[in-house]
Here is the input.
Amino acid sequence: MLVIAHRGASSAFPENTVAAFAGAVAMGADGVELDVRRTADGALAVSHDDMLPDGRVVVELPRSELPADVPVLAEALDACGSLSVVNIEIKNWPDDKDFDPEEAVAQGVVALLEVREERRDGRNLISSFHLPTIDRVRELAPELATAWLLGFVDDLGPLVDRAAAHGHSAVHPHHVFATEELVRRAHDLGLAVNVWTCDEPDRIRWLADLGVDGVVTNVPDVALTALGR
Here is the structure.
């Protein structure tokens, strides 16, 4: 089971920072999960929330006005070095202040990976809670792996079926919804199952025994130890 550092090694470093990504590499994580939003001038800012802690809205700021600890995606990818997986979550939800039905961030991510010659190297996994966002990524770059993040829904089975029907590579449910039936259903459809966000060693071992493909965790060092690595 892959160990994917949630927003980098976020228990030890400020989340979604170059330090957190470098820290995950140093801990031996297999991958990193990070969040991307757009700025006023079209840069790809690595930020989970649509607002900064000081209340400013990310999409209303040019890149030059981002705080020093908020990297852009290219800087984050550089910090991830040779990690096996970089899970780029595109934040684009209708309730967000920066929601964009034109999918500018999806287009920007695909374009950046093309410039960096990373669209075909197999390590980038593009995810979103907003299904049209990853559908757009697949339309632009069908060679990129895409994953649908699944929210708190009682019956995930139909959503797994829908993800497969749309041609995506994986589903990302919260770990509390991981069941033998769900994993089997996804695997039968050719989908990987990567769960978020689990920090408990016993639960991490249980997820591995269940056949989950990857666990997103704030404590990659703890997860690696739990798995005997």
In short: The chain has a mean pLDDT of 97. The beta strands are 2-6, 31-38, 44-46, 85-90, 124-128, 145-149, 170-172, 192-195, 214-217. The domain at 2-226 is CATH 3.20.20.190 (TIM Barrel).
